[in-house]
């Protein structure tokens, strides 16, 4: 990287302000990413994808028991 040559302190101050704002934006972005990652790792979030499978399994078990009861009562 070629060093930039400044002709005034105002130019230096302006670049320092820009760099500070860019740093602040990067820090806030990192905080947001951390919070999103943390919320995605909560047990309820992790089980969210499994929840649909578990519901289907439980419904099929209950349905099977209901069908077995009705079929055993007929005989």
TrEMBL record:
Source species: Pricia mediterranea
One Pfam family cited in the UniProt record for this chain: DUF6327
Protein name: DUF6327 family protein
InterPro entries: DUF6327
Taxonomy of the source species: Bacteria, Pseudomonadati, Bacteroidota, Flavobacteriia, Flavobacteriales
């Amino acid at each position: 990287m070629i060093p930039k040559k400044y002709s005034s302190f105002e130019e230096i101050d302006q670049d320092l302000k820009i760099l500070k704002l860019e740093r602040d934006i990067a820090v806030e972005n990192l905080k947001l990413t951390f919070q999103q990652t943390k919320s995605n790792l909560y047990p309820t979030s992790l089980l969210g994808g499994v929840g649909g499978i578990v519901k289907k399994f439980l419904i099929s078990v209950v349905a099977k028991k209901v069908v077995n009861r009705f079929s055993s009562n007929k005989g």
